[in-house]
Amino acid sequence: MFEIEWGKVKEIIWQEKELTEAIVEVAGRLEKALNYNFLTGLLSIGDEVLLNTTAVRLNLGTGGKHFILQVKGQEIRKMSESGHIMKMRYTPWQIQCLAVEEEESPYHQQLKDCKNIGGMPVVIGCLHSMLPLVVAGFFYATGGKGKVVYIMTDGAALPLALSNHVRQLKKTGLLSQTITVGHSFGGDWEAVNVYTGLLAAYEVEKADLAIVCMGPGIVGTGTAYGFTGVEQGEIINSVNILGGIPLAVPRLSFTDLRSRHKGVSEQTLIALGKIALTKALVVLPFLGEEKRKLVWQQIEEAGITRKHQVIEKEENLAALGILAKAGITVSTMGRGVEEEKEYFQAAVAAGRLAANIGKGEKENMGENCWLRKC
Predict the structure, then answer these.
(1) Whole-prediction pTM value?
(2) What fold, for 113-373?
(3) Domain 4-71, what fold?
């Protein structure tokens, strides 16, 4: 069930093309609310609005704001005037969009004929905060050259507009295009699933690098398989089926107080050790002796070293200067690079390695690197 209440807009905090944050008065309280302008129209002070207040009442984190369902007196808008694909299907909020691969699309035949992604490197993350870090590593290695496309899954937030990272990366030109797959929506391109999303990144956008991960707000339950990050393993399989080169970013932490996230997160161990049925490159930063011992014990016990190509790379995080220059700050679970250095290093290193693979450079990957056989 969800809670719905009426409120009144008292203040506009900020407004972008697709998203507005406002202060609303609801039940005598002043609270924050988000409005998706492209669905419900622009807000004005004094507007009466219908709110979904469930997340605030549950004291949630990322989703802990009210969401505006309707502005009184304004009609709900269409996302697209064409297309026959519905996202959030068979709910009161289902929306029409034009999928890049459907019959009405000018790219339908092109994607119908395209069967693989020709060795395109694909970095697969498990948290949204990895996205800008991978981008920084890639452009640091290429000297600012190349085309990066972000494919957002429906593992967390569904509207792309919620992502501050995407908004900032696109404004600064660090991210070329976005593709929303499954029930996520609002990208430059819509796609039915991750397979056609990958094909569109390769065939339509001619990407030098595709990054696939969920939007803000991973879901976890504290159980072995009850988290949306299991998709990382499934996406590895998808990339291999389509003839790409998957690079998986492990979730590392040595400051998280939860034992299941110490060293290599249990989520990574499950996704790469159990869910992934095909091989990926897994990039680890150089670690001190004690930390390295723990990490290698974890990945060996999980079967990751037998299934995947694990590569250790030195990473000094100079690439973060690219984000600093663009005014982009990154944290994971509220912690920055000072507290979670290894997390940042792993994601940046994956971006740098992807750039080198794209340039055809496979040195320093080890004599037994499976890429040499491709």
Answers:
(1) 0.93
(2) Rossmann fold (3.40.50)
(3) OB fold (Dihydrolipoamide Acetyltransferase, E2P) (2.40.50)
